[in-house]
Amino acid sequence: MQSADNLRQLFPESPHWHFSESRTGFPLLHLIDGNTQATVSVYGAQLLSYCPAAQEDVLWLSDDARFQQGKSIRGGIPLCWPWFGPHPNDSDKPAHGFVRNRYWQLTALTRVGDASLARFRLSEFDQTLYQPKLSLELEISVGDSLKVQLTTTNNSQESATVSSALHSYFAISDIGDIQITGLEDKPFRDAVNNNSTCLQRGPIRFSGELDRVYQNVDAEICIHDPGLERVISISGTGSQSAVVWNPWVEKSLRLGDMGKDGYRNMVCVETANADQDARTLKPGATHHLVACIQVKP
Ligand code: TA6
């Protein structure tokens, strides 16, 4: 595990990046581009915060987020890989895979144009959890927009199928006041209605727990937030599925780390390769799952 001090030696701090530690000692990377800032936990290679200039944080992080080894951090952009949701046939394995509960290696910090870029890598997997010889790289680019790219490479001689998601938690004024566009007329699996397949009619609005996996996603998804007077735009590439989720009251209590009424100020819109959008990589193949996030006034 690279400590904050190790990282300072490897990547001498600059006006564009510096390191700190969470209250539990997790190394944190702070990326700066002018008046735009982002914070990334090396544990999980997980974005925790993205504040464009003159904007409130675009990402939501629970007040009760646990920074404990072996647990996922509630908020930001957790990485779900190599399976999305419960393990397909082994309930003893962790939901959403295992890479969000691992320390990654920070391998590069640099400037590209007028953006600050960080690259992380995870290539050693616990063989009891996962056998295929795949490797993972995450690239985060912070500038006027945020680009998150999760790259899977199949280093084996066998094909491998992976489902995954950039499980983005967005900060909103109030769940009752927002609406989400860009998924109109798309089919979705409704996880709170016996996984039935339905069709999206009009914009998405919230009045209770909502947990849907949309397919045939091919356009920008927008979170319209009149309370914060902004629109958060999410565009995916290498993805034809998207997950929209709010746990509401009961599920928040069961989760236990959503904070008091935290559900009112967050919504997940996840750029994914989920369900039938899982991807099969031939030997030597590479797949990029990318989310581009920006705020429009
Ligand atoms: O992406 C939506 C979802 O699959 C929900 O069903 C809920 O389980 C959520 O992810 C959070 O999962 P987690 O394992 O992070 O508590």
What is the CATH C level class, in words?
Mainly Beta
Major beta-sheet overview: 8 strands, antiparallel
Tally of alpha and pi helices: 2
Name the helicity range: under 10%
CATH domain topology: Beta-galactosidase, Chain A, domain 5
E-strand count: 22
Give average pLDDT, whole number. 96
Radius of gyration: 18 Å
Q: How many distinct folded domains?
A: 1
CATH architecture term: Distorted Sandwich
Cofactors, ions and other ligands in the entry: 6-O-phosphono-beta-D-tagatofuranose
Instruction: Please state the overall shape, judged from the principal axes of the Cα atoms.
Output: globular
N-to-C SSE series?
HEEEEEEEEEEEEEEEEEEEHEEE
* End-to-end separation: 40 Å
Low-pLDDT regions: none
- Strand coverage percent: 35-45%
Class based on secondary structure composition and strand pairing: mainly beta
Structure, described:
The chain has 297 residues and is mainly β. It has a single domain, classed as Beta-galactosidase, Chain A, domain 5. The protein is built from two helices and 22 strands. Bound molecules: 6-O-phosphono-beta-D-tagatofuranose. The site of 6-O-phosphono-beta-D-tagatofuranose (TA6) has 12 residues, from strand 19 and strand 20.
Kindly summarize this structure in a few lines.
The protein has 297 residues and is mainly β.
